[in-house]
Each structure stands twice: as C-alpha cells, then as structure tokens.
C-alpha cells in the first residue's frame, strides 16, 4: 500500500510541479512539496519536493547563457518595483538577446536577470 501511495503521489505531484519549473530548483522543490503534501500527505510532500526539484533544475538556462550574461557589459537601469523570478520585467526595461538561445537578459538595479521570450525572469545571475 505504501508503494502505491508513493507512486501515486509522485505521478500527481510531477505535473503540477511543472508550473514552478521556471523558478529553478528551490522553487520547484517548494512547489512540488506543497502540491505533494496536499495530494498525498507527508509521503506526497517528499515525492513532490524531489520531482519539483528535478523539474526546476532541468528548466534552468544553460551554463553558456549564464556565462554570456555575466561577461556582457550593459548599463543598469533603476527600477523601483520588485523584480521577481516568474514575473515579467516591465516593457520599459530594455532586454538584450543572448545569441543562439531562446533567452534574453537585462540589468536592473545592478543585478543581471535572464528572461524568457515572454520577458519573464527565469534566473538571477550573480
């Protein structure tokens, strides 16, 4: 019975955890654990956390994109609002394409942000 419960929790937690993938490993773990806990109790929380972490890691931009973003010199813009992973950057903020990838980036308040084609922040690069 425990194995069936674990298998069900993993299966049910994997799909909802995909929604958290753009936020990376930490948010994937948190989202997967929360979803798993609702669906399968403590066992579901563990299974969901593992599944969410894997999905979040797989959704991270490739290392070459991060390297490119760090090496490029672009001016930082000042923005008074919050810049949050999973949320789009304002249309007033210029984004720069990363060659040969589906990502762009911007520099806001001295921090570098990788964004997807919808301008959603997918990672903060230090």
Summarize it.
The chain has 2 domains: 2-58, no CATH class; 63-125, no CATH class. Helix content is 48%, strand content 13%. It is α+β, with helices and mostly antiparallel strands.
Please outline the helices and strands.
Blueprint (H helix, E strand, L loop, with lengths): L1 H16 L6 H35 L4 H9 L24 E2 L6 E5 L2 E5 L5 E5 L1
Antiparallel strand pairs: 1-2, 2-3, 3-4
User: Count the helices. How many?
Assistant: 3
Number of individual domains: 2
Distance between the termini: 46 Å
> What is the structural class?
alpha+beta
Low-confidence stretches: 4-23
Indicate the percent of residues in helices: 40-55%
- What best-fitting shape do the alpha-carbon axes yield? elongated
The average pLDDT value, as a whole number, equals 77
Radius of gyration: 17 Å
Number of strands: 4
Strands side by side in the biggest sheet? 1-2-3-4
Give a structural overview.
This protein starts with a helix and ends with a strand. α1 packs across α2 (24-58). The model is unreliable at 4-23 (pLDDT under 50). A hairpin with a 6-residue loop joins β1 and β2. With 126 residues, the chain is of the alpha+beta class. The longest helix has 35 residues, at 24-58. The chain folds into 2 domains: 2-58, no CATH class; 63-125, no CATH class. The chain has 3 helices and 4 strands; from the N terminus they run αααββββ. The chain has helices at residues 2-17, 24-58, 63-71; strands at 96-97, 104-108, 111-115, 121-125.
